[in-house]
Hints:
The chain has helices at 14-32, 54-65, 76-79, 88-95, 111-118, 134-148, 166-175, 195-203, 214-217, 238-244, 252-257, 286-305; strands at 43-48, 69-73, 101-106, 123-128, 155-159, 182-186, 207-211, 223-226, 263-265. The protein is of the alpha/beta class. It folds into 2 domains: 9-132 and 293-305, 3-Layer(aba) Sandwich (Rossmann fold), CATH 3.40.50; 134-289, 3-Layer(aba) Sandwich (Rossmann fold), CATH 3.40.50. The strands form 2 sheets. The protein has a 5-stranded parallel sheet, with helices on one face. The protein has a 4-stranded parallel sheet with strand order 2-1-3-4, with helices on both faces. The longest helix has 20 residues, at 286-305. The protein is globular, with a radius of gyration of 19 Å. The chain starts with 13 loop residues before the first helix and ends with a helix. Phosphoric acid mono(formamide)ester (CP) binds at residues 52-55, 127, 133, 136, 267-269.
Amino acid sequence: MKLHHIIKAQQFNRSKLANLFTMAHEMKEVVQKGGSDILSQKVMATVFYEPSTRTRLSFESAMQKLGGEVISTENAREFSSAAKGETLEDTIRVIESYSDVIILRHYESGAAEKAAKVARVPIINAGDGSGQHPTQALLDLYTIKEELGKIDGISIAMVGDLANGRTVRSLSYLLAKYKNIKIYFVAPKVTRIKSDIKDYLKRHHTFFTEESNLKKIAPIVDIIYQTRIQKERFGKRVKDYKEACGKYIIDKSILKLMKKDAIIMHPLPRVDDIKKEVDSDPRAAYFRQAQNGLYIRMALLKLILIG
Ligand code: CP
């Protein structure tokens, strides 16, 4: 299975996902054995116009653990020639001469697709504004499979900033490929899930409902997928931001309501949306989830650069 551009979650089918997860499992063993050199001679460029800890560093670690090289601009908005007015397309046309794959995070929805149209090397969308974050959704789905042993039949509460949360959007697209999924969207009024996702789920016969009471939903789901209210996406809408903040916080009182074998996920970073008191509970899966990002991204790089 050779992959090329990774722009949106919908491009994966169940068979590709199964192959990817098998490969990610193998990559975990590669890491435990000290790495590999299968990507020696290959160069990966990370081009990030927005801040990142997990996505950029896990991609860079993934490349290095497979023997490849990394070139990077971590604050491209300020420190690349974008600051001098260079277009994204021109930037990509230049960076492709120096690299075999480009990992792009951008503040505009649709930027990765725009880059892919001019690129001769594969582009991986590492988050485009409020659009999508497909590799996060892949590691999220892998985490669900690893933690719960299955994906078909799971019920999930997606909580928080569902209007701006690109991870929630990408994960919804992926979950719609599985059977008997139940999605509960729990959000403040100003950050409710957008209609394009609801329309997609309807078209794919995936059950979803919108709820406001997390305490009612917590006892019946297998996963609480918490997300941060993304202050940076509100601009001048300070009143809306304040209205959305602090409505849904995962703390010990929510833990008490949850099933014994349920899990809590979060794409991270968290701010005050999950209390630190939750971290020691075995159901807190968010740091294991972040670690899975390394294995999934190693698998993706192998599938893109070798097949
Ligand atoms: N989950 C995620 O995308 O984290 P970063 O913003 O730190 O990359």
